[in-house]
């Protein structure tokens, strides 16, 4: 199987200054050796999880925080809960309850953010655009 790593970087201007914005890195284990390549000169880490996936929140503290703290020890982390719109979605709640789970509560996200020493905890929904401006 051939996996492709796509460059997801944009050059933007912030307050008249050109900056490089990296908006995604590969999460698959196949990219473990490549993932640290963009870390040098990183100013902030947006560590994301899906509100409809409690396991993804657990991964932020179990997998991603140790990785980031090793390669970027002094870079602030902002923990971001994605898919905020699914927290109260009946179908999502029903599907998760079949596995004896429930959507991640904001309090749970804030607790993990505090546990990992995150600078902030934010939530957003790409579908409804709620919280997007605050994250970016």
TrEMBL record:
Keywords noted in UniProt: GTP-binding, Nucleotide-binding
Matching PROSITE patterns: RAB, RAS, RHO
Coiled coil: none
GO MF annotation: an example: GTPase activity
GO terms, biological process: small GTPase-mediated signal transduction
Entry annotated with the keyword Electron transport: no
Pfam families membership: Ras (PF00071)
PANTHER family (UniProt xref): RHO FAMILY GTPASE (PTHR24072)
NCBIfam families the record matches: small_GTP
Protein name: GTP-binding protein Rho1
Organism in which the protein naturally occurs: Parelaphostrongylus tenuis (Meningeal worm)
Record lineage: Eukaryota, Metazoa, Ecdysozoa, Nematoda, Chromadorea
Record gene name: RHO1_2
């Amino acid at each position: 199987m051939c996996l492709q790593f796509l460059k997801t970087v944009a050059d933007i201007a912030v307050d008249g200054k050109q900056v490089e914005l990296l908006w995604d890195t590969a999460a698959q284990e196949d990219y473990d050796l490549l993932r640290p390549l963009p870390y040098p000169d990183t100013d902030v880490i947006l560590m994301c999880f899906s509100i409809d996936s409690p396991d993804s929140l657990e991964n932020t503290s179990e997998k991603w925080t140790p990785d980031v703290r090793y390669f970027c020890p002094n870079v602030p982390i902002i923990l971001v809960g994605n898919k905020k719109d699914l927290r109260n979605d009946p179908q999502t709640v029903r599907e998760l309850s079949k596995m004896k789970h429930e959507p991640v509560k904001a309090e749970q996200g804030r607790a993990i953010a505090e546990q990992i020493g995150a600078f902030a905890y934010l939530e957003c929904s790409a579908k409804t655009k709620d919280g997007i401006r605050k994250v970016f």
